[in-house]
Design a protein that fits this description.
By secondary structure, this protein is α+β, with helices and mostly antiparallel strands. The protein is built from ten helices and five strands. It has a three-stranded antiparallel β-sheet. Strand 3 and strand 4 form a beta hairpin. The longest helix is centred in the last third of the chain and has 16 residues. It is globular and about 55 Å long.
Length: 208
């Protein structure tokens, strides 16, 4: 995790500006939170069927759009930093050194909140398929989602995924990201996960 942000993304993240705006609405305007709210209906229905007390997509997204303005750090972001775009390899000239390699920079074209790539990666580590790591069951997912953002989860004994999640959160703290901003970014990428039809229905409902 540290190699990703101190290696391939280091220069981008060192060139920081700042802005003040509604971060939730920004994610909606940029399409991270889908503009077509019908794409959230399946997740909403799956969540409701599981007994979760959830609001309808229009109500939920309106609330997110109306989160208060925050002053945030902005930098160029990869903007699609899920686990399938991250590879680790031994350095070709030093077998004791591991190199981080990123793929697919198609979305890397704009200034974004500094929490964007970190939150994308945390959600992906938690919910996407990872070779060698068991999926998180519903109880463990609930424990993850109930933890305060940017604090150690204390769940690494349950699943190796939390070693990576804790490392992402440590990075967010080290960069001085506002926990309120990070929370909104997590929400945005949970809702982005919901819209993907290839993801299992139960997992989309849990993300919602």
């Amino acid at each position: 995790i540290d190699l990703i942000f101190s290696g391939p993304l280091r220069v981008w993240r060192s060139q920081v500006t700042s802005g003040r705006f509604k971060v939730g609405k920004w994610y909606h305007d940029e399409g991270v939170i889908p503009k077509d709210l019908s794409r959230l209906n399946v997740g909403y229905e799956a969540a409701k069927a599981s007994g979760a007390a959830v609001g309808e997509p229009a109500v939920l997204v309106t609330a997110i759009d109306n989160f208060p303005e925050l002053t945030v750090n902005l930098s160029l972001a990869h903007a699609d930093l899920h686990v399938r775009n991250v590879f680790a390899r031994y350095h070709p000239h030093d077998e004791g050194f591991i190199d981080a390699v990123l793929l697919d920079f198609f979305e890397a074209r704009m200034q974004s909140p500094a929490s964007r790539d970190l939150a994308t990666l945390e959600v992906s580590v938690a919910l996407d398929e990872l070779p060698g790591c068991a999926e998180l069951d519903d109880q463990t997912l609930d424990k993850w989602l109930s933890k305060a953002v940017m604090e150690p989860t204390g769940l690494e004994a349950l699943n190796l995924r939390f070693v990576a999640i804790d490392a992402v959160r440590e990075r967010a703290v080290a960069e001085g990201i506002d926990p309120r901003e990070y929370r909104i970014s997590l929400i945005a990428y949970l809702l982005r996960f919901v819209k993907f039809e290839k993801q299992p229905l139960e997992r989309r409902g849990r993300a919602y």
